[in-house]
Every structure is written in structure tokens, then in C-alpha cells.
Design brief:
Length: 88
């Protein structure tokens, strides 16, 4: 991971949870980090048992890191990425 990167990869993520579909984007630099962040996010939602693979978490496109808030940029630097909850 290169935290000083000025571009993030968007991993569009759709997961079947206990009560329905969970949709979020993982903003990071690589697939392994995307899956790790997605698993952590799902665990925080009480969905630790939800299936998350490259089928559910797929690279979509790149975005400039500057598009995101200072807080999100800081999270990217500290954690290797961040989550954007999306409507499902």
C-alpha cells in the first residue's frame, strides 16, 4: 500500500446480510486491503459471518483522493482505506 498515493481504487461491494443486502464502497489501493477493510466493517455491523470475497467486493474505478474529506483522507493514511456506506 502507498498511503501517499493521490488516487484510490473503488471496490463496489454488495453483501447478503442477516436482514438483507448491504451495499458499500471500499476505498483503498488493493484487493487484499479492500477485503480486510470490508470484513472489519461487516463485523462492526454485526455481520461477521457474512460472505465477503472478490465476487462481492469488486474493483470498479479510481477516484482522486482529494475528492474526499480530510477525515477520510486521514483514515486512508492510517488504515489503508475507508468505507463509504451506500444505499442498497
Amino acid at each position: 500500500m502507498n498511503p501517499s498515493s493521490n488516487t484510490v481504487k473503488v471496490f463496489d461491494t454488495w453483501v447478503q446480510g442477516k436482514t438483507g443486502t448491504i451495499h458499500f464502497d471500499v476505498m483503498t489501493t488493493d484487493e487484499d486491503t479492500a477485503l480486510r477493510l470490508a470484513k472489519t466493517y461487516l463485523a462492526g455491523l454485526g455481520e461477521a459471518d457474512a460472505v465477503i470475497t472478490t465476487e462481492e467486493c469488486q474493483f470498479c474505478h479510481n477516484e482522486p483522493l482529494a475528492f474526499f474529506s480530510q477525515t477520510q483522507q486521514q483514515e486512508f493514511t492510517q488504515n489503508g482505506g475507508f468505507i463509504l456506506p451506500m444505499p442498497s
